[in-house]
Specification:
single chain; about 180 residues; alpha+beta; about 20% helix
Length: about 180
Amino acid sequence: MKKKIASALPLILIFITLASVNAQQSNSNKALKLFFEKVYLHIDREYYVLGDDIWYKAYLLNGQTNYPIYTSNNLYVELIAPDASVVFRNVSRLENGIANGDFKLTDSLSPGIYHIRAYTNWMRNFEVNFVYDREIKVGSKANTEATKTSILKGKTTVEKEAYRLQFYPEGGSLVAGVSCNM
């Protein structure tokens, strides 16, 4: 009986060693699967006038690798007033990590500095470091012709400015005799 146990002992030790190594590998694989979502919102400008539309395109990324991920389905995008109240909230459907949407800046809003915030439900489990937040400035329609609205310390001032139109060649270089896009 002792010979059978003595001959089986090396096999038992090998089995225990392999099981512990396998357990360590599975724990390390679980640690690698932890990820953080990050949102980037692409908007066309930082200055808006009441009555404008704020169009956005959102990208959902892995916070560690900055590669697109497709884990969440809904993206919450909020327009936040200067008094920190949520003015509008859109729920945009994420398809392949991309979402689109817009906000209509109604005339009932007051001019000032607003924020656009975007997040997923998963992101609410973590700190606000991964929540997208961007400041935009909203002015009033003081003159429908060429006006430029600037916001200084919460006050709105209107300055007239002539429009300037410029055309640039695609790629940055214009070569005589070679066709290119402008």
